[in-house]
Amino acid sequence: MAKTALITGITGQDGSYLAELLLAKGYTVWGMIRRASSINTGRIDGIYRSPQRENTHRDARLRLVYGDLADGSVLNRHVKSIRPDEVYNLGAQTHVKVSFELPVYTGDVTGLGAVRLLEALRECGHESRFYQASSSELFGLASESPQNEQTPFHPRSPYACAKAYAFHLTRNYRESYGMFAVNGIQYNHESPRRGEAFVTRKITRAAAAIALGQQETVSLGNLNAERDWGYAGDYVKAMWLMMQAERPQDYVVATGETHSVRDFCCRAFARAGVPLTWHGEGVNEHGVDQAGRVRVSVDPEFFRPVESECLRGDASRIRRELGWAPEHTFDELVGMMVDADLAALSGGRRGAPSAGKRCSNAA
Ligand code: NAP
Ligand code: GDP
């Protein structure tokens, strides 16, 4: 019989890719969405047309219900009526820098939200498997590199602290009640659907807009920060695999390769046809194009009170036990993001450019 899944955060980057994957596998997918004053279902338009828009294309196996991770009663109601085989908890206040401004709200939604959902499942009594979207930010000031499932946590933001609470509660429900509840310790993963306030998408959009003459320059924060960036489409496959495993286990999901924000900039701008060289240091560092125009500068406004400087994951366990591996390289990821932004900003008039040029660092 076809399985039923419930996804929180279906309107987000990962939720949209996961919904597509599960529908392709024959699932009935229930997605929980928040009521918003403007349409927030843009990322799932390909598989669902919101009632606010013309109902031209709709997969009947995808159903949306209103709800919020801050509201336990609605979670109870949905779990009782849907009785899902699998629950993917992807909903969260996901932005690290914003979490310093909204620490209590982030704790409520990103941390307590997970336990509200776990409680709803426990009370319902229906045997559902539960996936918690945990984060490499748990490691924060990591004591070793690369990090694996045994590396101690040292969260460095309210977001990471909230994720740590949700991580431990997920493990605790597994150990206390025998639930199939697992954590995917996901490293950063990106795509053309990544939110524009995250650094990769901010860069690819700016590179495309600058290449098209629609923007002069972009300001960024810490150019030295390094991340292990993968492709979101690959990471939702890891989520699904973890939920099909024989026994519930937590896994690191990562590529094992890191790049700095500066390096991401170099590749993205080169791909857009605006190769950069770097000059200056610290807050005076800037990326300059071949005509000598400053295209990238540093603005301390984008610095964080503390930083997870270098996160690199060791995904050996999921590779070995579940056969997962990333299918897209870093260059392919940057390429697909820049090309998508070029196409979107040029109204589809511009095709993908050829392979990116090499980056140089003159500073
Ligand atoms: P995203 O694009 O920011 O999406 C977040 C989703 O959560 C959106 O659908 C959002 O709804 C929903 N949401 C926010 N507040 C909510 C609330 N109070 N109740 C219910 N839903 C709420 O995030 P993502 O990149 O897809 O990430 C998915 C999950 O993986 C998140 O939990 C994130 O923390 C975690 N994660 C992501 C990464 C990464 O690199 N992408 C890495 C590690 C962990 P609206 O659309 O209405 O805002
Ligand atoms: P995070 O790893 O979940 O915090 O994802 P982000 O994409 O928001 O940030 C990744 C890294 O890029 C962090 O170390 C940030 O400090 C760094 N960064 C540098 N400049 C920026 C910027 O302008 N915006 C964001 N969001 N991050 C930046």
TrEMBL record:
InterPro entries: GDP_Man_deHydtase, NAD(P)-bd_dom, NAD(P)-bd_dom_sf
Active-site residue list: 187
Catalytic activity: GDP-alpha-D-mannose = GDP-4-dehydro-alpha-D-rhamnose + H2O
Short name of one Pfam family: GDP_Man_Dehyd
Keyword Lyase: yes
Domain named NAD(P)-binding: residues: 6-337
Cofactor (UniProt): NADP(+)
EC number(s) stated in the UniProt entry for this protein: 4.2.1.47
SUPFAM superfamilies: NAD(P)-binding Rossmann-fold domains (SSF51735)
GO process terms (BP): 'de novo' GDP-L-fucose biosynthetic process
Keywords linked to the UniProt accession: Lyase, NADP
GO molecular function list: GDP-mannose 4,6-dehydratase activity; NADP+ binding
Function statement: Catalyzes the conversion of GDP-D-mannose to GDP-4-dehydro-6-deoxy-D-mannose.
Family under the similarity heading: Belongs to the NAD(P)-dependent epimerase/dehydratase family. GDP-mannose 4,6-dehydratase subfamily.
PANTHER family reported for this sequence: GDP-MANNOSE 4,6 DEHYDRATASE, GDP-MANNOSE 4,6-DEHYDRATASE
Record-given protein name: GDP-mannose 4,6-dehydratase
UniProt organism field: Posidoniimonas polymericola
